[in-house]
Amino acid sequence: MDPEDAEELAAELHGKPVDVWDLLQIAAGTGLTAYVVWAGILMPGFRKVPLKLQVPYVPANANQVENVMSLLKGRSGKMVDLGSGDGRIVLEAYKQGFRPAVGYELNPWLLRLSSYRAWKAGCYGKVSYCRDDLWKVDLSDCKNVTVFLAPSVLQLLEKKLLVELPDEARVVAGRFPLPNWTPTSMAGEGLNRAWAYDIKTVRQSEQDRPEGSPV
């Protein structure tokens, strides 16, 4: 069954336009549940991205958000979240004074959820959620970057960040550390841990690395 067919079936059963929550209710208790979750929530964002660059959506918990934001304490300027999911980190960054606060996310359902969360918090129109591929966005004017991404893509992300970010930028990774960079500081424990990396320090370390040493 094609994803569009699944949505048409749900619309017929309800007699009205459906959103993701309608689809889940229709599918509950049937063999369609797993398919609808994939087709309605995950697949729309993944269709445009090569398999090796795909990142599954796992929302950050309250402790993870708190630890990430603690590593940005005292900083200001533009903040971006790469693969912003349901938008909670962007929303918290705005509340803590970052301007602008921007999330990049390909999945349209998650973008709608992000907008709803912003509206509910009284921040609709004050934060930005963009349907853009994080691998293609220009980060040259970003001073604060957060990432909650899978380990499989982090080494490639390091290269993009080093090429594009200004020296004064700080990158904060949640759940998994960047594999080849030494963090400036850390917060939290276990899966709630976050790591902060200052780009100027990382660049200096890269320059000091002996030629031919493993990356």
Automatic annotation (TrEMBL):
Transmembrane annotation, as ranges: 23-43
GO biological process: methylation; regulation of mitochondrial ATP synthesis coupled proton transport
Superkingdom assignment: Eukaryota
Keywords recorded for this protein, A-Z: Membrane, Methyltransferase, S-adenosyl-L-methionine, Transferase, Transmembrane, Transmembrane helix
Signal peptide start and end residues: none
InterPro entries: FAM173A/B (IPR026170), SAM-dependent_MTases_sf (IPR029063)
GO molecular function: protein-lysine N-methyltransferase activity
Keyword Zinc-finger on entry: no
Any GO CC annotation of this UniProt entry: mitochondrion
Presence of the UniProt keyword Transmembrane in the record: yes
Protein family membership: Belongs to the ANT/ATPSC lysine N-methyltransferase family.
Protein name: Adenine nucleotide translocase lysine methyltransferase
